[in-house]
Amino acid sequence: MNKYKKITLDGLIYQNPTFMLVLGTCPTLGLISSAFSSMGMGLTVLVILTLSNVIISLLRKLIPDSVRIPCYIVIIATLVTFARMFLDKFLPDLYESLGGFLALIVVNCIILGRAEAFANKHTVAESAVDGIANGLGFTVALTVMGIICEFFGKGSLFGYEIMTFKIGMLAKPAGAFLVYGICIAVFVYIIDGFERMRRVKANKLARENLLKEAA
């Protein structure tokens, strides 16, 4: 398998930071009551994760091992500061909706984790792909859960009222936790199903090849 394809599939599916590794749960549970906030946080993390991966990969041979974590935090904090300034200036509504969770990106487990586990060991191109894939995986997961919570919990979608029927609990932290758990279970079930189908096909192909060789 092409290495970039593997990196992409790992970030989006097999090592999805939200559904498979269960990272970044603080912003996930705090923001998925709104589809707008969820998508905004996801896209912000995507940009910061990609840029931090690229920068750390570029500097990986210059950063001493003894201070690599503090260096990563300085790089990420700088990017977060620029992101906050940009959102405050051009997207004030999103800036307000993200609140304190925006500053917490500095210590987000996904970003620090990819810096330590991937970016400081791989090339710039590979690190960029890894950042985009994991960022998209996080964004899609948050947005899907945000749509579910807002639609059923508030009867709206991206702030626009859709229906009057509401399940108020789903717009609260307890409801967000419930939706999160259900989404993880469904995601893992689907992935396991595809993996079983893949193994069955592989075994069938192997048996057919053996029969051909025997003939």
Topology:
Layout: H1 3-14, H2 25-31, H3 35-59, H4 68-90, H5 92-98, H6 109-119, H7 124-154, E1 156-157, E2 160-161, H8 173-214
Antiparallel strand pairs: 1-2
Helix pairs in contact: 1-7, 3-4, 3-6, 3-7, 4-5, 4-6, 6-7, 7-8
Description:
The protein has 215 residues and is an all-alpha fold. The protein contains 8 helices and 2 strands; from the N terminus they run H-H-H-H-H-H-H-E-E-H. It has a two-stranded antiparallel ribbon with strand order 1-2. A hairpin with a 2-residue loop joins strand 1 (156-157) and strand 2 (160-161). Helix 3 packs antiparallel against helix 7 (124-154). The longest helix has 42 residues, at 173-214. The protein is flat. The two termini are 30 Å apart. The mean pLDDT is 92.
- Give the strand tally: 2
Q: Calculate Rg over CA atoms.
A: 20 Å
Q: How much helix, percentage-wise, in residues?
A: over 70%
The largest pleated sheet is described as: 2 strands, antiparallel
Indicate the proportion of strand residues: under 5%
| N- and C-termini, Cα separation | 30 Å
Number of helices, where a helix is a run of at least 4 consecutive DSSP H or I residues: 8
User: Can you list the strand order of the major beta sheet?
Assistant: 1-2
Morphology? flat
Residue-averaged pLDDT, rounded? 92
Please write the string of helix (H) and strand (E) elements.
HHHHHHHEEH
* Helix and strand composition category: mainly alpha
Low-confidence stretches: none
